[in-house]
Design brief:
The protein is built from twelve helices and five strands. It has helices spanning 57-71, 75-88, 119-132, 139-153, 173-179, 187-195, 201-208, 235-244, 268-274, 281-286, 293-301, 303-317; strands at residues 2-6, 10-18, 26-34, 215-217, 255-257. The strands form two sheets. A three-stranded antiparallel β-sheet has the order 1-2-3, with helices on one face. Strands 4-5 form a two-stranded antiparallel ribbon. The radius of gyration is 20 Å and the shape is globular. 43% of the residues are buried.
Length: 339
């Protein structure tokens, strides 16, 4: 069992318990242990935060995600990206959903959020929850729960997400521009970003493994195809990408899949990048950098190891700089702060 510090005088203890699930396997989560005098401190995140105030909250989210996955198998990738991007900008506070923020241009307008999708799914889930539990479940929690369910329904691990986040009141394009990682991020920058969130290199490599789902638009990797063409790309993969991205005027709409099993959350991504099929610059670099390559090799050969590291990393990321207790608010509408 490992412990990491959290706000408000407590310790998160990471635990693994073996229980029966629809697909079997391990159940990961955190338990919160209060240290010192906590009488005047805000409550922290916890499992089943809504068990009394909105007992069916997590089931409602799961049902909405399940319906979306049936109609659109790319939903898991979109929801996971949405959750990551929400947490990367000033913490997991639902700010990525805001369409108005005190006159400021919001996060969704940032180029770093190009192609972000499934905000409508979060909106619909929020409306469903408002009908049964008015102003109880935060948009920030819905985003993280939806990502968890998307990963699981795509074949990935079931993650016991902690809940109790509250919604922020500010959203800034400028802050998103500065805090969201660029498509050509270096290994050095990637390690630094995750270390600031108490995420280890191993967990960080696993989180990049989220690229096992979805696609990337040509605009995000077309520079790798310009002379001199990136030598880390395999010949066959390079030729494929050159055909897909042949028209620079269509780089915002043309795309390539991140790995060969784009709808499945599995370890195929790591096998692909070891074989010269890394779509983004960071994909190729983590397969060769000596600080990250051992984990890439390990995840490529052991899917459960990837799932375990992804789970622990996701739990840390989704608990980063959250609003708790009386901080922030519980929005009535995810797109607007309350009056």
């Amino acid at each position: 069992m490992r412990s990491i510090r959290c706000d408000f005088g407590c310790v998160w203890r990471l635990y693994v318990a073996v229980r029966r699930f629809p697909a079997g396997g391990k159940r990961w989560g955190f338990e919160r242990v209060i240290i010192g005098d906590s009488k005047e401190k805000s409550p922290g995140l916890e499992l089943n935060f809504y068990r009394n105030s909105c007992p069916n909250a997590e089931q409602v989210v799961k049902d909405e995600v399940s319906r979306s996955m049936l109609l659109d198998p790319t939903s898991a990738a979109a929801l996971l990206r949405l959750a990551f991007h929400d947490c990367q900008v000033d913490g997991c506070d639902g700010s990525v959903m805001l369409s108005y923020s005190n006159g400021s241009i919001t996060e969704t307008e940032s180029d770093m959020n190009f192609g972000v999708r499934k905000l409508d799914l979060i909106d619909g889930t929020k409306r469903s929850l408002e009908r049964i539990c008015p102003q109880t479940v935060s948009c920030a929690d819905i985003i993280q729960l939806a990502a968890r369910d998307g990963v699981y329904l795509a074949g990935g691990p079931y993650i016991e997400i902690l809940t109790g986040r509250r919604d922020g009141k500010l959203s800034s394009k400028e802050r998103a521009d500065k805090q969201l990682p660029a498509a050509d991020i270096s290994v050095d920058k990637f390690i630094k970003i995750f270390q600031q969130k108490n995420i280890s290199v191993q967990e960080g490599v696993a989180l990049i493994g989220a690229h096992t789902l979805g696609i990337s638009h040509c605009r995000n990797f077309e520079k790798r195809l310009q002379p001199p063409i990136d030598p880390t790309l395999s010949t066959s993969f390079k030729l494929t990408l050159l055909v897909i991205c042949s028209d620079p005027f269509l780089s915002n709409v043309t795309f390539a899949t991140n790995d060969a099993t784009t709808f499945a959350f599995d370890n195929r991504y790591f096998t692909d990048i070891l074989n010269g099929r890394g779509l983004l610059k960071i994909d190729s670099e983590i397969s060769s950098d000596q600080r990250t390559k051992p984990y890439v090799l390990g995840f490529a050969s052991n899917q459960q190891q990837f799932f375990n590291s992804f789970t622990s990393g996701f739990l840390k990321l989704s608990s980063h700089k959250v609003l708790l207790g009386k901080e922030g608010e519980i929005r009535k509408d995810c797109r607007f702060v309350n009056n």
